[in-house]
Structures are given as structure tokens and as C-alpha cells.
Please model this.
Amino acid sequence: MISAPRNELLDRPLALRATAMGKEDIAGFSLETTPREVESCSSTELHVVQYKIRFTSYVVPEWYKDEGGKENCIEARVHIVDKTGAKVKLSYALPLAVSAHYESTQREATSLTKESIAVLLPMENGSQAEIDQSTGEGYLRVRFNEVSSKHGQQDFSICCLPFAEAADDRLRHIGCGYSTGVKVKSKRHVARRKQALAQAQADAELAAQTPWQAMGGGNAAEEAALAVTSAPGEVAAATRGSSISRRMGAGVGAGVSAGVNAGGTAR
Model:
């Protein structure tokens, strides 16, 4: 338990130091070494806070940074809680900032470029992200500039904290919060998409050479083409090939039916 005036605890970071106690101070235990032979140790730096930021929604487990343009981002919501986990509303709006951390260790990720790994995009109306004073809720739009493969395939975690340049005495008692992990990738793997598109085109060519398939109402080529997530031009080309083959088959089928009706039963 830490015992000190509240203002002193919030004013500066702390560290815990552990030292060996004398034999007479440890009831029920027998030490074969003296306290001088046991080295002391210190904890990492810690901050005492009264409230902390908490994510109220899970982020996507996988995100592709090179899809969807510059506005492509991860969306999340946050609010402030006390030590019991109860939601807290502040008497002022709290500006927010983000940084990228590794999910496994919660250590800040090291950028491989001059850019920040995680960037907080402005809101749709151009305003800065903040926790609203009236609702106690905040909305984040976060974009990653680096992929997990450049960081040993580690998942990232979004660290949300009070905006540093706006920090004052009121904000020192609010701790940061961490999101669930997200693996950042560049683009989706397109091998399956290309394979499915090639199959759709092959089906269209086969249907054009075998017009009898169209007489049975078969539209396998069109269905295969439409099932492929590809560029609109590629889908349209495959669909046109299938539609032409069906029209050809329908024409041939109509000619055969007319011949049968005119000449009686075909032999």
C-alpha cells in the first residue's frame, strides 16, 4: 500500500524498491543468508491515477492499411472509469491522443520511419477527438502507417491517453487505456480472387462452345463471375461472355424445336 499526500502522488512518477529484511523480521521463515547478501531491486516507473480511459468496443482483429484510401481507419469508442469500473463524467471535455503499443507487452512500438505508427484522424466535422463532457463518451478514428510484419508479426494495441499539449493539473490523474490487439496488414491476398476469375472466364468460353448447356437454363459462368470480388470491368467481361453464350444456346434450341414441330418426331 502506498501512503502519501494525494497531490504528491499525482505530481511525479514513482518506483517501488524492494530490500531484504532481517531474519528476526520474517516470522516463520529461516534465512540462511544475511540481508547484505541479497541485492535490492526496483520496479519500473509507475504513475498513480484516480481515473483511467477504457475502450468500450473491440477493434477489428485484422486491418488492411492500403485498402479504402486515406480515410480508411479503425473506429473505436472510449470512456473514463474509476477504480470500481464505473463510468465517470468529467466537468470538462477531455482532448485525446493515441500511440501504438505492442499488445503482448504494452510497450510503445518503435517506428521504422519518421512518421508515427498510429495516427488519430480528425472527426468527420474536422474537430479533434475528445471525450464529450455531456455524454462521457469519446470516438476514435485511428490509422496505422506500418504493418505487423515489420515488427516481428506482433499485434498492435491502441493506447488512448489525454492529449499532451492540452495537459494541465486536471489531467494528471487520468491514466491511459489499451485496446484489444489488431494485426495490421497491407492488402488482402488476391491469389484466390484471380483463380476464381480465371475459372469464371473458362466456364464462359466452355458455355459458348457448348450451346446445349444454355438450353437447361445453366448460368454457372455468370454465377462464378459474380461470386468473385474483383474489379467491375473483370466481372462485367465474364458476365457478358456468359450472357452471349446463353443467347447463342437459346437460338440453337429454338431452331431445333421448330424443326421438330414442323417435321414430326425427330428420328
Remarks:
- The longest strand covers residues 94-102.
- Helices lie at 6-11, 191-209, 212-215, 220-226, 232-263.
- Residues 191-254 form one domain.
